[in-house]
Task: inverse folding
């Protein structure tokens, strides 16, 4: 009987030791596999997908301990660290950041690191916002306008379309003209993964491609980050564009990291997006070289818009304060 108990204890002890060494070997194997991924990846050695949208010109670093450092992948984060673990031959991990959380799956094939990232932002913008309707009465007077323009001093004199007018009149004039064109927008959708989609009323035009813009919120501002590769493809495929790819790259590179800021205000179901004079100054050159060339000269209205843009830039420089924006309803 005593021998039987001793034999049982021996078997249990032997099994426990084998199990311990087996787990140790498994951990060593996993650590070995993870360390095989260690290195810095960029250019042709890296493929980053965010919600199945490829993001070019990014960088990833995997340390020997399995810490993944993603650079300029998560909107608003110049770099973010994610501890990886091995599962079914793939590296996985997740972490939280100031604006939400991100989970990744990574794999290495022929020295090319593939990273699939799923981003989840936490903010009040998520969802679809419909543009406030533009309406006029029978006399042509504006009843409702999604565009608002405010400036001071209102009695200062500016020149628009060759005519002198005060700033207050200019604001009404600009909001009316811009409101007509802006009313072609149906809605803006802020997706939880950080992408923005604009939907037009014209069904032929439809919606902007997924992945064209990302967004994040910081210090009470919304930052829009253009996807450089998506924009170059869009411009390059448009025969009406007279923007060189080199000029576009130089301009967009300035804003692909931080993004273009917009002020915003949410009041229950109303969203206002706007820019102030100081905020719009860096974007004026971008608009001049990217947007204006896309307006066809064959359309008289667009020719007027081009002339107005030049006068507009001169006028706002003479104002002490200036803001322009659009209103949306949820």
Result:
């Amino acid at each position: 009987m005593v021998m039987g108990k001793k034999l049982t204890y021996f078997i249990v002890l032997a099994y426990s030791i084998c199990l311990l060494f087996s787990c140790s070997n498994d951990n060593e194997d996993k650590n070995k596999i993870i360390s095989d991924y260690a290195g810095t990846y960029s250019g042709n050695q890296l493929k980053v997908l965010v919600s199945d949208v490829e993001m070019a010109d990014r960088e990833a670093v995997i340390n020997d301990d399995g810490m993944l450092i993603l650079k300029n992948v998560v909107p608003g984060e110049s770099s973010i660290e994610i501890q990886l673990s091995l599962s079914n031959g793939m590296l996985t991990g997740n972490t939280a950041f100031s604006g939400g959380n991100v989970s990744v799956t990574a794999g290495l094939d022929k020295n090319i690191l593939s990273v699939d990232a799923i981003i989840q932002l936490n903010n009040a913008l998520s969802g679809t916002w419909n543009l406030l309707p533009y309406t006029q009465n029978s006399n042509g007077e504006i009843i409702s306008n999604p565009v608002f323009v405010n400036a001071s001093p209102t009695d200062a004199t500016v020149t628009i379309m060759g005519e002198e007018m005060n700033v207050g009149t200019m604001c009404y004039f600009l909001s009316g003209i811009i409101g007509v064109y802006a009313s072609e927008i149906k809605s803006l959708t802020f997706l939880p993964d950080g992408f923005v989609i604009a939907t037009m009323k014209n069904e032929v035009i439809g919606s902007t491609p997924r992945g064209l813009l990302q967004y994040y919120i910081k210090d009470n501002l919304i930052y829009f980050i253009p996807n450089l590769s998506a924009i170059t493809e869009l411009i390059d495929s448009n025969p009406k564009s007279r923007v060189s790819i080199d000029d576009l790259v130089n301009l967009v590179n300035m804003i692909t990291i931080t993004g273009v800021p917009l002020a915003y205000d949410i009041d229950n179901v109303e969203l206002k997006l706007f820019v102030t004079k100081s905020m719009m100054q860096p974007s004026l050159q971008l608009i001049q070289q990217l947007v204006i060339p896309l307006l066809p000269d064959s359309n008289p209205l667009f020719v007027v818009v081009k002339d107005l843009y030049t006068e507009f830039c001169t006028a706002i420089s003479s104002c002490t304060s200036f803001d322009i924006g659009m209103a949306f309803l949820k």
In short: The first strand starts at residue 39 and ends at 42. The chain has a mean pLDDT of 81. The CA atoms of residues 220 and 263 lie 7 Å apart.
